[in-house]
Amino acid sequence: MSASVLPLDLTAGSVALTAALCDIESVSGNETPLADAIMEALAGAAHLELTRDGDTIVALTNLGRAQRVIIAGHLDTVPVKENLPTHVEKDSLGDDWLWGRGTVDMKAGVAVQLTLAAALTHPAYDITWIWYDHEEVDASQNGLGRLAVNHPEFFVGDFAILGEPSNSSVEGGCNGTIRVDVTARGVRAHSARSWVGENAIHRLAPALAVLSAYQPRSVDVDGLVYREGLNAVGISGGVATNVVPDEATLHVNYRFAPSRSADDAIEHVRELFADFDVQVVDRSEGARPGLTSPIAQHFVAAVGAVPTPKYGWTDVARFSAMGIPAVNFGPGDATLAHADDERVAVSQIIECESALRKWLVGE
Amino acid sequence: MSASVLPLDLTAGSVALTAALCDIESVSGNETPLADAIMEALAGAAHLELTRDGDTIVALTNLGRAQRVIIAGHLDTVPVKENLPTHVEKDSLGDDWLWGRGTVDMKAGVAVQLTLAAALTHPAYDITWIWYDHEEVDASQNGLGRLAVNHPEFFVGDFAILGEPSNSSVEGGCNGTIRVDVTARGVRAHSARSWVGENAIHRLAPALAVLSAYQPRSVDVDGLVYREGLNAVGISGGVATNVVPDEATLHVNYRFAPSRSADDAIEHVRELFADFDVQVVDRSEGARPGLTSPIAQHFVAAVGAVPTPKYGWTDVARFSAMGIPAVNFGPGDATLAHADDERVAVSQIIECESALRKWLVGE
Question: Other CB atoms closer than 10 Å to residue A27's CB: what's the count?
């Protein structure tokens, strides 16, 4: 066990475990204490074969079942915003909510998974549990991506479930995402004689106008409607307080329906910003819903809710690209992910655990 | 003498001295080695009474002359951009130029002043020479402003000359300058579900449109025409690469004719950005031309060129506010100040020294 954190009790129930997981701060890059605590907590489980790769943990059952399910979740969160430690509050309807960074994205999902990983010694499917690092940052750092390179043997299965927040219902596939830098250039000059320069920040005006006027599409893919989004996630420029700057950059994130490839998405953004230098910083393909296979349909029936589309990019796309049908299924309202008032309904954690348990034991 | 720099030779001539002053890097905040070297070089001048205040140096003659002239220049530069050490190049006409950071703004002017301060043991006017720190940054840090508080006795005189670049002709007064932060606010959200947030960067679009469409005025003040400018000098915003940001800020610099007060300038900018939160960061009044007094007219006649307006804000405004008529007079083309290709015509350094010497010895 890490000296710095309390031991985790995987029999405490998913709700208490969610709070315990959140209270071990694990902003991307700082997952080690949490991964240490999970390794320690799972060490006694004889039915699980453990592997660690950096701060990614794999726990495998090998029961010789006919089918194998991969169930995964990430350990990291976006930066804390004075919203830790967690606390429970009742809303105006008398329902309990667990507040704090990570409660939605996605430690409630991880808590459900860890609880079931420890408890289900004889599931109906063999299970490959994966908890990984660096999901909330650049795709190149993603722990699941690294694991796929270092341990491709773990990416064999008939179906994959990612515990990303989906209000404990099934969300199919995901939007793709790209990030580009849109740069305007000008001519540097003293701001007292600005007419001899060309202001690169002013030249970003039409790019901001494009963003501000943009009408994102909603696209039907295999029966689910995916909503897109085009957003500036950063802007920067400026040399000194008395200098007309010669460069200014807009950092743009485009989330696109899985009917469009990342290449097509890049082409679309290049057309929108045709007058600017556009550099691609990050790209991740989307994933189609993945609900057509029999095992997927059986899972959906067991959970008992109408599947909806996943808007955010999630690592289901990695499974999808490897030919493994994959869905998102986890507690929490994704619109509260990353928000200062991030919070999860306690009832959703319980529902999610119950539905997943029911399906995994073959009821 | 500072251990880290070569001693300065004030008899080497203004051109060689300009190169030597530039090659002692003195970006705002790092003036100490240069100020040390100047103190050391002036230490032997029996006709000068030296005072040091931080990195500001005052050298005074006390010859009992009927009139006193204040002659000042700043020691700091904007950041170096791979343009040091200095070097001399011929242009296509065969004329020599000294290239490098500070050559124009304003070490050529300081070199002329130091040369004459050391050489003129019996000038026709008593002279208060001032070389000061922190001119290129926020007005609150300005060394001349600090000196006026710590040593008001040095701000007594009949006329003031600031050696800011004016192509070795007389530039009267200066534009005023204000800086404001223009902030847009929104609602933070995950960029995968951007429709639940409000993008603060997108909301800056109309502010950039205002800047990009703005037509600056040209204003006649006491016979000189002042050209204004409104520029973004910085822009910032962004929380993380997958977050719709809730705040974005445009840093705006407005340079205004001396017929307008800083209060009026602020009012004008508030009107332009009425839909935004506008915070004033920095404000400096302009200065009217200051060419009406007999001593100013005598100086202009001695220099022998038609006065023109100064566009940039300079510390002549401080003298002007204290009731001391003041002009800018120094070598160098101000449009090359702060530029990557900053360079001064060698002939202008010589002209400037010659004209100033002629007037100071009473020819």
Answer: 15
A163-195 pLDDT per residue, tens: 999 999 999 989 999 999 999 999 999 898 899
Contacts A–B by Cβ distance under 8 A: 208
Q: Annotated catalytic sites of A, by residue?
A: 76, 135
Query: Contact A355/A112 with Cβ under 8 angstroms?
Result: no
Are A202 and B208 contacting, i.e. CB atoms less than 8 angstroms apart? yes
Interface membership of B279 toward A (CB under 8 Å): no
Quick: pLDDT tens for B213-252.
999 999 999 889 999 999 999 999 999 998 999 999 999 9
What is the b/e burial string over B93-125, where b = at least 16 CB atoms within 10 angstroms of the residue's CB? eeeebbbbbbbbbbbbbbbbbbbbbbebeebbb
In this structure, how many other beta carbons lie within 10 angstroms of the beta carbon of residue B292? 11
DSSP state of B70: E
Of B136, B137, B192, nearest to A313 by CB-CB distance is B192
Is B312 part of the contact surface with chain A (CB cutoff 8 Å)?
A: yes
Other CB atoms within 10 A of residue A290 CB: 24
For residue range B282-318, what is the model confidence (pLDDT) as tens digits? 998 999 888 888 898 889 988 887 899 988 888 999 9
Task: Using 70 as the pLDDT threshold, list the residues of chain B that sit under it.
Answer: 1-4
Q: Any idea which of A24-38, A245-259, A310-324 has the lowest mean pLDDT?
A: A310-324
For residues B241 and B250, give the distance between their C-alpha atoms in angstroms, rounded to a whole number. Answer: 20
B173 contacts B346 by C-beta, under 8 angstroms? no
- pLDDT at position A116 is 98
Q: Is B133 a catalytic residue?
A: no
- Reduce the DSSP state of residue B149 to 3 states and report it: helix
Whether B205 sits inside 8 A of A208 (CB atoms) is: yes
Kindly give the pairing relationship between strand B247-256 and strand B229-237: antiparallel
Pick the residue with more confidence: B302 or A130?
A130
Task: Please state the length of chain A.
Answer: 363
Looking at every residue in chain A, the average pLDDT score rounds to: 94
Q: What is the pLDDT of residues A334-354, one digit of tens each?
A: 889 988 999 999 999 999 999
Please report, in angstroms and rounded to a whole number, the separation of the first and last CA atoms in chain B: 36
Residue from A162, A178, A202 whose CB has the most chain B CBs within 10 Å, to mutate: A202
Minimum-distance CB partner of A231 among B137, B191, B253: B191
Chain B residue at shortest CA distance from A175:
B192
Give A208's Cβ-side CA count (13 Å radius): 31
Facing B194 at nearest CB: one of A78, A231, A244: A231
CA-based radius of gyration for chain A: 22
Q: Residue B1's pLDDT is what?
A: 41
For residue B312, the chain A residue with the least C-alpha distance is A192
Q: Which residue of A78, A208, A234 is in closest CB contact with B208? A: A208
What pLDDT is attached to residue B2?
A: 43
Between CA A330 and CA B105 the distance in angstroms is: 62
pTM: 0.72
DSSP alpha helices (H): ranges in chain B? 14-23, 32-42, 108-119, 143-150, 205-213, 262-272, 294-303, 316-321, 346-360
Here the tokens at position B213 are 């469409």
Query: Whole-angstrom Cα distance, residue A140 to residue A74?
Result: 15
Q: Which among B179, B190, B226 is the top mutation candidate for probing chain A, defined by the most A β-carbons within 10 Å of its own β-carbon?
A: B190
Strand partners, A219: A226
B190–A338: do the CB atoms touch at under 8 Å? yes
